[in-house]
Amino acid sequence: MALPVVAIIGRPNVGKSTFFNRIIKDRLAITDDQPGVTRDRLYRTMEWTGRFFVAVDTGGFLPRSHELFDQRVREQAEIAIQEADLVLFMVDSKVGPMEIDKEIAKMLLKMKQPTLLIANKSDNETLQLEANAFYSLGLGEPFPVSSTDGFNVGNVLDEIVARLPDVSEEKEFRPDAIRVAVIGRPNVGKSSLVNKMLGDARLIVTDIAGTTRDSVDTFLEYSGQDFVMIDTAGLRRQARVKDNLEMYTALRSIRTLQRADVALVLVEAPNGITGQDIKIIEQAEEARKAIVIVVNKWDLVEKDTYTVDHFTRTFHEKARTMSYIPLVFVSALTGQRVTKVLDKVIEVYNDRQKRIPTAELNNFLEAAVEERHPPAHRGVHIKFYYVTQTEISPPTFVFFANYPEQIDITYIRYLENRLRERFGFVGNALRMKFNPRSTRPDME
């Protein structure tokens, strides 16, 4: 099920990030349970009055150079208008309508994009009245808010959920199929890979009207398993994305990942795995999806100097916590090993559905603790009582201990590695929670 996307746009210094931080505070629908993991996030899934949506702070993508601001704001507004279900157009009550505000308003009106006009920095009654000047933009009534003290933010959230589509009524086509999102930087060969899969004579292909706005998904059958390849087409209207690839890719990935079971992250073999590739993989991790990295254009690599082992080792050095993610080396152009991608999708999906009996988990925990005791913290000795798997998709494990907050990240990584050695979970990030004492017997 795809959650609606709400993009906050506007010129620099109107308070987009402050507003974003205000609305997500204490209302996160998805939290990161891994200790020691902190990342700057430009989007978050949140809940308001029982409705869920993804909020995107486009301000996080702006360049540092002031000379580029106006051009980038226009381009990013165009991208957000095309990709979001609802746009929050933010302006500044303290300075009134500016020329760049008027240009963005014209784009919104021309493209008939659902929009809420947010007059930020309305910190007192006088400034709240000044917000009326934005009626001239032609976007309807401006909502005066103060992101710093929270004035009127709740009313804006009420209006957001009132205008968003009700995704609870959406029904997925073929619910038994594995839903696969093909994501990655532009021009890494996503379309070529999917087209090569669809062109294989052993695959049965059908077009499906998608459940997300203006998308078309593709159904295929391979090795007795149904797949739905989620739409990864380019922008529906031409936009200048050359200098905004990070924002464009993030918005596309957010929408696509919402409906997926498995994420195929495409990278280019000749260029290696880049920092932007790592960010895209992190998006899939944060969305709690099973992941396969597809290394495309392998036919262009000199095999005597850049072998599979070398490429894999280099990736693990760049992203040590991602060593659980499998890599498949393909050529979408020649078709080399393309069906191996679908084989790997089936493998990681099956591991995503795996449930381990509590008795087996406790045997594992007892052996792991016996082999390596958790380090004492300031004289506090850690005792584990038991572990159980509480969820699948993603696999979630709850460990009960006397002082769970004192378990350090190194020992958590050790337990995760031992879990994988014993039970697999290839391509799946594990959620590991640590709770206080329970009534089970001690594991010394």
CATH superfamily of the largest domain: P-loop containing nucleotide triphosphate hydrolases
Largest sheet: 7 strands, mixed
> What is the end-to-end distance?
44 Å
Residues in β-strands, percent = 15-25%
The secondary-structure class comes to: alpha/beta
Query: What is the spatial order of strands in the main beta sheet?
Result: 8-9-10-7-11-12-13
User: What number of structural domains do the residues give?
Assistant: 3
Q: Count helical runs.
A: 12
Overall form: globular
Question: Would you count the extended β strands for me?
Answer: 16
Please tell me the CATH architecture of the largest domain by its name: 3-Layer(aba) Sandwich
Please, what is the average pLDDT?
A: 82
* CA gyration radius, whole angstroms: 24 Å
Low-confidence stretches at least 5 residues in length (pLDDT < 50)?
A: 26-41, 201-216, 233-240
Secondary structure: helix percent: 25-40%
Order of helices and strands: EHEEHEHEHEHEHEEEHEHEHEHHEEHE
CATH hierarchy, class of the largest domain: Alpha Beta
